[in-house]
Structure formats: structure tokens, C-alpha cells
Amino acid sequence: MENNFDEMREEVFSPSNFSELKEELRTQHKETKNLEKRVEELIARVINAEKVINEMTAMKTMTREIRDKYTSFSNRLDQLEERVSAIEDQMNEMKREEKPKERVSVIEDQMNEMKKDVNQK
Question: Average of pLDDT values for 5-30?
Fold first, then answer.
């Protein structure tokens, strides 16, 4: 039995087998290095993709906020136009009825205040 072990050891570790093993080890080392490099590249791409996703999410949020502000501004403008139109209707009615100038003056003051509100906002 011991003799068989010595023979196997000589076969496995013979100079020609040693060279083959050494070459195979070098090849596997190169392949491992290439795989490690590829994994690092993939990790970098994943990190980059995460950054892009975060930026797009932030842009989506900003877009939503801008849309909401525009909608709010548009609604306020519509309300203001309705108020101006109602006051103009009142003024025209007062002119037709020839009411006292005091009433017209009050309405004109209201319109001036609304114009100030619009300019301040």
C-alpha cells in the first residue's frame, strides 16, 4: 500500500505534471482576475444606474411640484378674473342706473386693491 502511494505521488508530482499544474494554475488565476474585473465593472454600472434612478425620481418630484404650483396659480388667476368680471358688471350696472358716484368709487377702490394683491403675489 505504501508503495502504491509513492508511485501515485511520483506520477502526480512528476516534473511534467508539475509544469502542467503550474500552467493550469496561472490560467485559472488570469480567469479569476478577469472575472473580478468584470464584477467590479458591473458593480460600477449598478451604482451608476442607482444614481440615475435617484436623479430621475428627484426630477419627477420637481415636475410634480411645478405642475401643482402652476395649477394653484391658474386657479387663483381664474378666481381673480371672475372677481374682476363681477366688479365690472356691477360698475356697468351702476352706470346704467346712474347711482351715486360714491358707489362707483367704492367698487373702483375694490378693483385697485385686487390689482395690488395680484402685483404682490
Answer: 74
